[in-house]
Amino acid sequence: MLVLEQLRQWQSEDSDGPAGWRAAWERALELLGPAWPTEEMWPGTVLADGGVALAMALYIVSREQDIAPVDVSRAQVGDLVDRQGETDGEIPPRWEARLRALGHDPEASGDPVSARWRDLRKDNSPPDNAPDAVHVDHGSEYRWGPGFLEGLRSVLAPVYETRLQL
Predict the structure, then answer these.
(1) From the first residue on, what is the mean pLDDT of each consecutive set of 10 residues in the chain (166 residues)?
(2) Three-class SS string for the chain?
């Protein structure tokens, strides 16, 4: 399966979400479609997380700034994941607080935004007692940390920057 196919499936599952969430999904897929025409899900799981995280970032910024997702800049998205002096451990609670401020209870069932957030915030790091080979194999089979952090950083990486006109 292609990453874009997976993202479109998730977008379809979220079709009963708020209008701003649907618009953020549309914008994310509009941006990612040209960048990932043939990216496969395996090992593209990180990219799928990044695609959802991009939609989430567009949603958060557009709602907070009262602008359309198409008007959200790369700098605004980047600021959601990389702030001077902030550790990775501080980022998930900040995103969650912002979602709460927008009226989303991350634990609520029936809210597509909250459901996607619960998936994105999962820590994918191997347990501390995992064999050393797991920790060495960082680039291929394993995702590390919350899915949205590694995923969104991958989406914003220079390898896609020329194709991702955000």
Answers:
(1) 95 96 97 88 81 97 97 92 87 95 95 95 76 52 74 84 59
(2) CEHHHHHHHHHHHCCCCCHHHHHHHHHHHHHHHHHCCCCEHHHHHHHHHHHHHHHHHHHHHHHHHCCCHHHCCHHHHHHHHCCCCCCHHHHHHHHHHHHHHCCCCCCCCCCHHHHHHHHHHCECCCCCCCCHHHHHCCCCCCCCCEHHHHHHHHHCCHHHHCCCCC
